[in-house]
Amino acid sequence: MWRWNPGDPRATSGVPIDSLLTSASLGTDPMLRAAAEAIAEGDLADALPLLAETRDDPEARVATVEVLGRAAADRVDELGDLMDTADRADVLLWLGNALLTGALRAHGGTAEHKAAEAGLDDARRLLKAAAELRPDDAAPWTALQTVAMGAGADRETKDLLWTEIHRRAPHLFAAHMGRVRILSPARGGSEEEMFAFAGAAADTAPEGDPLPAVLALAHAEFLRAEYKRLTAEGTMAFIAGRTLGRLHGEAVTELFDLARGWAERATPHPRDVQAHHLFGWAFHRAGLADAARWHLTAVGNLYCDVPWAFFGDPRRQVARAMEELGVRPGGTG
Fold first, then answer.
1. What is the top-level taxon of the source organism (predicted)?
2. pLDDT digits (tens, 9 = 90+) for 264-319
3. Exposure winner among 192, 213, 221, 242, fewest CB in 10 A?
4. H or E, element range at 262
5. E strand or H helix that includes residue 297
């Protein structure tokens, strides 16, 4: 099993690795990250051209509006003020994502739960309006799928949303991530249909597309369910992690072949960092150090919550894996 080190993961320079890592939640593109930082300072209008430029690119549009939504989650009133001066469909889409972010952040007691429900309802209404204004846009439907997950919608509703997404953008990475999670046993699906869906997505992905990484997500969802079951039964988190063991056998061979096929033909994609983390997690779990090292080197100093957050604090999980593999984030030393 992996070496156990309860202390802070440290780079060879003595600087803690986790202090060198930055969340990818505000984007992997420097311009998008700069726009997110500007939004935090109150400059919302300057981000609208970035969103407008993505109207013909579903992957970029979904990735962009997710980041803008996170950045503006605490500025929904200011965002609403743009409605009369900017493209209405774009603002509705952005505002819907901002409300969705706020709702998903809400947790805790009854008051927070009610606020989350209200936020999800408002997000649903705005996203549906955005979809009506721009019928070919897959982005509102992708966000609506996340709303449905957060609201605990029935399976029929989730299936209808998937049909709308797939009709508009059949290989959309974020939408497939959401669909895998909807089909997971933890959300009322089954291991069989989750893996069947993820495998089919991987097999039919366009050449050079990172979509095959959703199969690694399916494995993570399966192990996450087992991890939660063990800890719910009273097993210590560390022991539960050890009990789950490694990925092995045909599953690892399949993932390795998919990752290699993507790497050999990869074209730039907004979800490259996410895919590298999914494959990096899987190969670290499988004990394939060289493959895991290659993928986690490719992410630079950016970390993703999924799938690392399934098993603990994501920054620390990534840092520990990098420390074990000898990876220095962003080439720092």
1. Bacteria
2. 999 999 999 999 999 999 999 999 999 999 999 999 999 999 999 998 899 999 99
3. 192
4. helix 250-265
5. helix 289-298
Q: Which of 308, 310, 332, 302 is nearest to 320 (CA)?
A: 308
Domain ranges of the chain: 1-21+173-333, 25-170
CA 215 to chain centroid, in Å, comes to 14
| Contact (CB, 8 A) for 81 and 111 | no
Other CB atoms within a 10 A radius of the CB of residue 196 amount to 13
Write the DSSP assignment of 4-40 as a string of letters.
P--S--B-TTSSBGGGG-EEGGG-SSHHHHHHHHHHH
Q: Hey, which residues does 298 pair with through a beta bridge?
A: none
Q: Which residues contact 95 (CB under 8 A, 6 or more apart)?
A: 72, 76, 79, 80, 83, 126
- Chain segment 112-153, per-residue pLDDT in tens: 778 889 999 999 999 999 999 999 999 999 999 999 999 999
The Cα–Cα gap between 242 and 316 comes to: 17
Angle among Cα 40, 44, 48 to the nearest 5 degrees reads 135
